[in-house]
Amino acid sequence: MNTELRLNLQDNEWELDYIDHDRNIARAIVYDKNNNFYFVRAERDDDFGKATLIETAGGGVEKDEDLVTAIQRELQEELGAKVQVICKIGVVSDYYNLIHRHNINNYFLCKAESFGDKNLTEDEINDFHLSTLKLSYEEAVREYEDKAATRLGRLVANRELPVLRQAKKIIDEL
């Protein structure tokens, strides 16, 4: 099987003043038995600007929470999905200079077992208008490329397209 992906990315979209905090994040490439992929669509209008984005489901790891528990919780909250964690894809370190944050994104490959009710936060509903996207691999790649027209879209695509491509290789090997 493939070795874990390791990427260190810089934010070339906004000027770097300072970084004052790290955020440990668990994210997943989720697929089903028919090789459909599941993402969240966020519609934002905030300090980063107005943008509609595709992004992997996931979020911050809570205090005293391990990564596998965090990704299972986040996927249930954002996608309503119960999953089997297949493997860790890797870690992508990136920065959001605008909000002075360093992100440590821990990516997992997860196979969906079932879908039920989501448990979105008030911010995810009212500020980000999160919804679920079910796409083929090719559609997902195109969606990331299309959404890279905005500054935030480029940051997200630079982080997530290499992970999606690595996930596809792992799935093809299985």
Tell me briefly what this model is.
With 174 residues, this protein is an alpha+beta fold. The chain has helices at 67-79, 122-126, 137-147, 151-173, and strands at residues 5-8, 21-31, 37-46, 49-55, 57-60, 81-96, 101-115, 131-135.
3D structure, described in words:
By secondary structure, this protein is of the alpha+beta class. The protein has helices spanning 67-79, 122-126, 137-147, 151-173, and strands at 5-8, 21-31, 37-46, 49-55, 57-60, 81-96, 101-115, 131-135. Helix 3 (137-147) runs antiparallel to helix 4. The longest helix is centred in the C-terminal third of the chain and has 23 residues, at 151-173. The chain is globular, with a radius of gyration of 15 Å. The N and C termini lie close together (9 Å).
What is the topology?
Elements: E1 5-8, E2 21-31, E3 37-46, E4 49-55, E5 57-60, H1 67-79, E6 81-96, E7 101-115, H2 122-126, E8 131-135, H3 137-147, H4 151-173
Parallel strand pairs: 1-6, 2-7
Antiparallel strand pairs: 2-3, 2-5, 3-4, 3-8, 6-7
Helix pairs in contact: 3-4
Count of helical stretches? 4
How much is the average pLDDT? Answer: 94
Beta-strand portion reads 35-45%
Distance between the termini: 9 Å
Structural class by helix and strand composition: alpha+beta
Radius of gyration: 15 Å
Q: Give the tally of β-strands.
A: 8
Uncertain runs with pLDDT below 50, 5 residues or more? none
Helical content (DSSP H or I, runs of 4+): 25-40%
How would a crystallographer describe the biggest sheet? 8 strands, mixed
Q: Which sequence of SSEs, written as H and E, runs from N to C?
A: EEEEEHEEHEHH
Query: What does the overall shape look like?
Result: globular
